[in-house]
Amino acid sequence: MTILDKADPANPPSAQASSSVPGVRTGSWRVVGILVVGVLVCAVLSLMIGNVGISPTTSVRALFAPDNSQAAAIIQQLRLPRTALLIVVGLALGLSGALMQGQSRNPLADPGLLGISEGASLAVVLAIFWLHISSPVAYGWFALLGAGLTAWLVFSISALRGGPSPLTLVLTGAAVSALASAIITSIITSNVSTLDQYRFWVVGSAAGRGLDVFWQVLPFLALGVVLTVVCTPAINLLQLGDDAARALGVRPGLHKFLGICAVMLLTGGAVAACGPIGFLGLVAPHVARLVCGPDYRWVVPYSGLIGAIVLTLADILGRVIAGGAEVQVGIVMALVGGPVFVLLVRRARLVQL
C-alpha cells in the first residue's frame, strides 16, 4: 500500500512525522487550556481596570448578582459589553489570519494586508455617505458585504494566471486596498458629516458598544468559526501545493472557497463590531507557530485564543497608558503591531526582492 492510499486529510503525513520527531514543537490540549484560562484572566482584568478601579470580588459579584451600586452599573452597562466584544473580535481576527496564511501559503497574509478590512471600511463609508446610516449596529451588514466582495475580488484577480500565489495575493491585496483607501479619502474629505461619523469608527475601538452590537455580529462570527473548523484539517495538505493536495484526496477549490467565506464572515463581523484593527491577524499566527510548530490543526485554535488575549490586553493598556485619557485599541495595536511586523519580516526573511 502506498502513502497515497493511507493519506488522511485530518492527519497528513507531514503532521504525523512532525509529531513523532523528538525536539519538534507540537500542539497540546494542555496549552489550549492554558490559553483559555488566559482569556478568562484577561476578561476579569478588563472588568476591573479603568478610570474607576473595581476589585475582583466586586467585579464578579456585579457580574452574577448585580445591585444598584455604581460598580454594578459600570460592569453591566460599559465593561461587560466591551469585554465580550474584545474577546470575540480578537478570536475572529486571529482565526482569519491563520486561515488566510495557511490556505494561501503566505506568511504575510492577513485581512488588513489583503485589503479585506479596507473593503469593509469602504462599504461602511458608502453606507454613511449615500444611505445616511448612523447606527453602529447597522454598519455590520455593510461591513460584511464589503469584506465578502473584496475577498472575492482579491482571490479572483490573483487566480487569473495559474491560481493564487503568495506574491500575487499580496500585490493584488495591496492594489485593492489602495483603491478602496483612495475612494474613502475622496469621500470623507468632501463631506464633513461623513467624516464626523467615520473618524470615530475607523480608529478601531470597543468603547461605547452595547450588547446589541455583540448579539448582532455573533451569528456571523459563529458561522465563520464553524467554517474554519471545517477547513482546518486540510490546511496541512494545502501547504504541499494544490496538485499534491488533490492527489491526497483534498479538493483545493472547495476548501479555499469555504476559507474565503470564513474569512469574510470573521473579518466582516469584527470590522462591523469594532472598526478596522490592524496587525492582529498577522501577528497571532506567528506567535502560535512559535509555540506549536507548523501543524495548522493547532496553529488555528492557538491563533484565535492568542488574538483574544492580545486584543483584550491592548485595550486594557490603552485605558491606563495615558493617565485619565484613553487610547483606542486600534491605535495601541498599530503602535505595537508595527514594530512586531518589522521584526518578523527581518527575522524570518519573509519578504525578498
From TrEMBL:
Pfam families: FecCD (PF01032). This is Iron ABC transporter permease. Keywords: Cell membrane, Membrane, Transmembrane, Transmembrane helix, Transport. Belongs to the binding-protein-dependent transport system permease family. FecCD subfamily. GO terms for biological process: siderophore-iron import into cell. The chain crosses the membrane at residues 31-54, 83-100, 112-133, 139-160, 167-193, 213-237, 257-279, 299-317, 329-348. Residues 13-22 have a biased composition (Low complexity). Residues 1-23 are annotated as: Disordered. It comes from Flexivirga caeni. It is found in: Cell membrane. Its main location: membrane. One of its GO terms (cellular component) is plasma membrane. It is a multi-pass membrane protein. It comes from the Bacteria. One of its GO terms (molecular function) is transmembrane transporter activity.
